[in-house]
């Protein structure tokens, strides 16, 4: 994002609109998104014990369903019909994608995966994708090493749509990986 876009983002999250995305802007953005989340948040904390208790064992495909794609989405140029996700997140994911698509269709139309039995890249920790409780959108513009919002361009309105369902967005909460949304608190 350019300086003008960062200033608009800062205004939206309620911090000083100076065009510099630093610690104050990051804190304001996190506070803004958390203010949109349901209370109590329906999702588990991110610790492995909480995740296993809530979602079950990682890579357990018996807990997955095929959610009909609620909006037009494309994987490598091919329109997808379904999203394999954990049955506990399906309804929420459908609502988040629908709301996000209404606000920013181009960001949501590029689907880069949900269920994938794997660890977090470069880690021994199990990914939320291995439970079907995370989704990636528009990875080409919002890759895991791209800093948000200075390099990655995931729209805040998409993050807000997921936040209203209690989901965390990587870009806002980790400063990178803006393509990633997960059903944890």
Please provide a brief summary of the model.
The chain has 185 residues and is an alpha+beta fold. The chain has 7 helices and 7 strands.
The CATH class of the largest domain, by name, is Alpha Beta
Q: Average pLDDT value?
A: 96
Please report the number of helical segments: 7
Main structural class: alpha+beta
- Measure the end-to-end span: 27 Å
Strand order of the largest sheet: 5-7-6
N-to-C order of helices and strands: HHHEEEEHHEHEHE
Main sheet: strands, sense, barrel: 3 strands, antiparallel
Radius of gyration over all CA atoms, rounded: 16 Å
Low-confidence stretches: none
Tell me the fraction of residues in β-strands, as a range: 5-15%
General description of the model:
With 185 residues, this protein is α+β, with helices and mostly antiparallel strands. It has two domains: 36 residues, no CATH class; 139 residues, Muramoyl-pentapeptide Carboxypeptidase, domain 2, CATH 3.30.1380. The chain has seven helices and seven strands. The strands form three sheets. Strands 5-7-6 form a three-stranded antiparallel beta sheet. A two-stranded antiparallel ribbon has the order 1-4. Helix 4 runs antiparallel to helix 6. The chain is globular, with a radius of gyration of 16 Å. The two termini are 27 Å apart.
